[in-house]
Structure formats: C-alpha cells, structure tokens
Amino acid sequence: MKTQDIRPIRDGYGNALLKLGEINPNVLVLDADLSTSTRTNWFAEKFPKRFIDVGIAEQNMVDIAAGLSLEGKIPFVTTYGVFVCGRAFDQLRNTVCYSQLNVKVVGSHGGISVGADGGSHQAIEDIALMRILPHMTVVVPCDHFQAYKATMKIAELKGPAYLRLAREATEAITDENSNFEIGKAQIITEGDDCAIFFAGTIGAEVMKAFELLHDKNIFPTIINMHTIKPIDKECIIKYAKKFGKLMTVEEHLQAGGLGSAIAEVLVEEYPAKVKMLAIYDRFGESGQPDVLLDAFGLSAEKICVQVEDYIKE
Amino acid sequence: MEKITEIALLKKKAEEIRYDIVGMIAEAGSGHPGGSLSGADIGTILFFNEMNFNPDKPDWDDRDRFILSKGHAAPLLYALLANAGYFERSELKSLRKYKSRLQGHPASYMLPGVEVSTGSLGQGLSISCGIALAGKLNNKDFRVYTLLGDGELDEGQVWEAAMFASHKKLDNLCAIVDRNRLQIDGDTEKVMVLEPLQAKWDAFGWHIILIDGHNISEILSAFKEFHTVKDKPTVILARTVKGKGVSFMENKAGWHGKAPNKDELKLALKEIKARMDA
Ligand SMILES: Cc1ncc(C[n+]2csc(CCOP(=O)(O)OP(=O)(O)O)c2C)c(N)n1
Ligand SMILES: [Mg+2]
Known about the structure:
The structure holds two protein chains of two kinds. Chain A is built from 13 helices and 14 strands. By secondary structure, chain A is an alpha/beta fold. In chain A, α10 packs across α11. Chain A is globular, with a radius of gyration of 19 Å. Chain B contains ten helices and seven strands. Chain B has a five-stranded parallel sheet with strand order 1-2-3-7-6, sandwiched between helices. Chain B has a two-stranded antiparallel sheet with strand order 4-5. The longest helix of chain B is centred in the first third of the chain and has 22 residues, at 7-28. At the A-B interface, α4 and α6 of A face α5 and α6 of B. The structure holds thiamine diphosphate and magnesium ion (MG).
C-alpha cells in the first residue's frame, strides 16, 4: 500500500533476466514466438547468442531446454502458461522432472485477468499441473518486484521450477526491499479477525479489499503464499490454530490450486474449514480484466463481501 | 575405451549384446526384444568403435553423448553399458525388478551412463538438439548420437526438432532411424505411412545416409561420412529387421514387447551362440 506502482509482473521477469544475463553466463532464454509478450525480447536484444526462439513448438522447446540443462546451462523456457504446462506436460513430466533437470519454466498469462483473449489463453490449471509433478518447485509472485526476486531465486535453485506470471499491469504490493524466500510465506499484515491467503497478482485486489474491510472495522491477517510448492506448512497450521478456519483467494481453478494445496495440509495436520475464492469447474472467457474478476467473484468488492459473510459464519 | 576395429570382432560383439538382451528380458519376464535386437549392430558400433567415453568417468565433459530416444529398447542400452564397463554384466539380471537401477525404461537419475531418462517417444531428438547446441555454445568437440524408432517418427515433435537442428546447423548431431518397418500395431506403412522418408528428411535440411543397419562395414562408413558433414545435421536411415538375430522373432510385430519363455529362450540363445562361436 505504500507504493503506487502499477506495472505488469512480466516486467519484473524481463528485468531479472537482463540482470541474470550479466551475472551468469550459463543463463539462456528460450521462447516460442511470444518474446515481445513475455518480455524475453529484452534479453534477446542484449544477449542474442543466448536467446533461442524455437518457433511455435512448445514441446520441442522444453526438451531442447532439457538438453541444454544437461550441459550445465540454466535455460528459462517462456511462453503462455496454458501452452507450456498443457501442451508440453509430458515433456515436463517424463524428461524434465523425471530426470530432475535444471530447467526453469515460466508461464506468463496466468489467470482470467488475461482478459480479452478469452478462455483458450487464460491459464487456470497451470498451478495444479505443475505442483503435482515430483521435484517441481512452484512460485507465483504477486507483483513485478517479487517477480524479479523470484526469477533471481529460481535461477539459483538446483532443479526444475515453475514461475507463474500474469498479463495485466497490477499495483505493486511489495517493494524493492521486501524479503522474499522460496517456501516461506510472506505476512503482509496481521489482524485479529481472520486469515486470508492469496497467491499472485490477485493480491492487489485482496489489498483493496483490505482497505474496504478496514473501513468496516474488520482486520484480517493477509498472507502472500507466493510459493505453492514447497508449501509453508508451519504458517498454514499456525493460522488455522489461531482462527479455526482459513480463506484463500486465487485466479485458478479451485481443483488443485492454492486453496487445494492448503486444504491438503490441513486435512492431514489440523482439520479446519477452508473457504476458497477461486474458479469452480469452468473455463474463463473474454472480457475486460476488471469485469472478469468481478464476474468470477474475485474483485475487491466481492472479496470484501465474502470475508464479511465468512467472519459471521 | 579401447575401440574394436576388426569387423569380425564387432560382429561377435553384436552377438554378445544380443545374447544379453534376450537373456535379461527372459529373466525379467517382460520387455522389448524386437526393437532392441534391430538396433544391436548400430549400438555395438557406436559403443565399441565410434564414440569416445570413459565408463569410469561417466560425466567426462568431452565424451560423446548417446540418447536412446526409443527408450523401450532399454535392454539394448543396458547390454551396451554393461559390456562397455559401466557396471557388471551380472546386474543385467535385475532388469525391471524392484529397486533395480535397470528400470523398464532408462532412468538417468538411477544409472550412470544413461544421459537422460526416455520412454515417452518423440523427445530424444529435441533433447539431443539441446545438447548439441550447448556443445557449440561451449566450444566443445563432442558429438551427439540418438537412436529413433521408425514408428516414433509419427510424433510431431520429432519434426519440430528436425527443423530446429538444420536451422541451427547442428553438424555435431547424428540421428539414426531404426527403420525396421514395424511398430506396435503392425506395418508402419499401414499404421501411418512414413514414405517417402528420405524426401522428408531432405526437405527438412538434413544430410542423409542410407545403409543396411546390420552390415557392419556400412555402419562404420556411415559414421565416417557423418564426421565430414559441415553445417547440417546427419540422419542415418538404417534398414533393419525387427527382432534381428532370433529367427522366430524376426519381422514379427508380436515380438515388440514380449518376453520369450524358457524354451524360446533356449532356442534363441542357441542361435546367437552359434554365431558368436563361428
Ligand atoms: C509417447 C508414447 N506413446 C506411446 C508409447 C508406447 N509405445 C512404446 S514402443 C511403441 C512403438 C514404437 O515403434 P518404433 O518406434 O518403430 O520402435 P521399434 O520398432 O524400434 O521398437 C509405442 C507406441 C510410448 N512409449 N510413448
Ligand atoms: Mg519400428
């Protein structure tokens, strides 16, 4: 809330790649004919020899990256989340994860806030697909500052990782100096009325909802669950114990997403109710991002109403 | 690795490989003999004549790389690795058993010498492209070899990789197609026609070498020719016989993924042994 900084999260990724290009000669970037949209074109201009455009061939891209990683390179494969996670799923499963290869997978255009392109282009199942894969780390940063840090961190990590980005410019809710550690949830604010976990750029809506709730004298604890895998169990259990129930907000299918991941921890460790604000068993559709978020119950106003109801329950 | 250059000795070695392939599949009670046997001569030449590697240092930077794109021919790869000295031949008995490093399809995280896990068809050429490109970027002189099935060429990804390899002028890459004309459901030309196969690779910008994949001297000279090709990847289209070397398995789609029983094993080993001792 301190910042009024509205930028697409993809910019954070693009800038981090530029930095990585300077400091780590092993970093390579691959794209499948979407480099202007994913921001890998920034890297391409500066480091043309280390950028590989494979054309519209996502399966090939993932396995070329696998080969490059076998030779000590750190390849970042980048395209829309739907295409890399869906079309190249078998390559990610059987080659990258099964062989435990150091391939970084970046899916841009996560969630319905992609907007006008419609359901075919809105990745709403990518987190589910990636987090079920053994060895895969899954990170969903909330803004361009965090996308920058997350990119730098997954480059250091040994092993496969998935980074989910979004299309729209959203308000930054962290800043340059906020701490970011893979696997460690980030407490944005502590309140005594309930706990809301979110992942991704939907955090901007959650923070707007926080303002609205504030005006109504409701003070939630808000937690940025930027790492879906490995998930911060300790944090989940701590707040389940404190509030007896939790709430989650995400631009992803309810099946297999953040809420699901949290519920998996709770049913085994500390059974508690989880109210999930997510997309229930349907695809996205075309529309203005803000219109869509509202229609899917994920706008600040809708989140606010849900929180009020949930506290009363 | 000391290389074998004499044709008679290479022939004998290929039969030893066949002996191990059939034996381990029978012991496991399942596995893929047909495609392992059809690739046995090519594999033998790769491992005992063509490639540079050191079984004591599987990660040696300058080794030539071999990717078994048709991962179901794992018994072939295991026989080659064991006979080349990566592990004891006695371990071949553990194929497909619980806790074995010899998984049903090659798993690189378990077994040194396996460059990458395969088993899902259609991916090896792309992986090999990545390795070959890294070789160029790193100014390395190693070569990359990958063995593909002909049925495997049905996978669209193979052709994505074929486009990429010629676009990037990967002349350090050699694909070998085990053209045994059979896949699981039968004749490749009936399941999904591949011909004119040479014209396809030609159109994709590859240097093509046509050989009899069981003729040792033709295989040897194909690799020699590959060394001379500049600015293009090479594909060796090797005419082979599925199940080659075990008469009752030859050209039978039914022997793609079936283990011989005791009597069949006896018969098979007798045939192979006769050629080994010849
Ligand atoms: C992606 C994928 N689909 C299906 C299979 C199952 N499968 C295993 S072997 C095979 C036939 C392969 O035929 P070919 O490539 O001609 O191999 P070869 O004749 O040399 O054994 C199939 C369909 C697989 N392993 N991977
Ligand atoms: Mg075949």
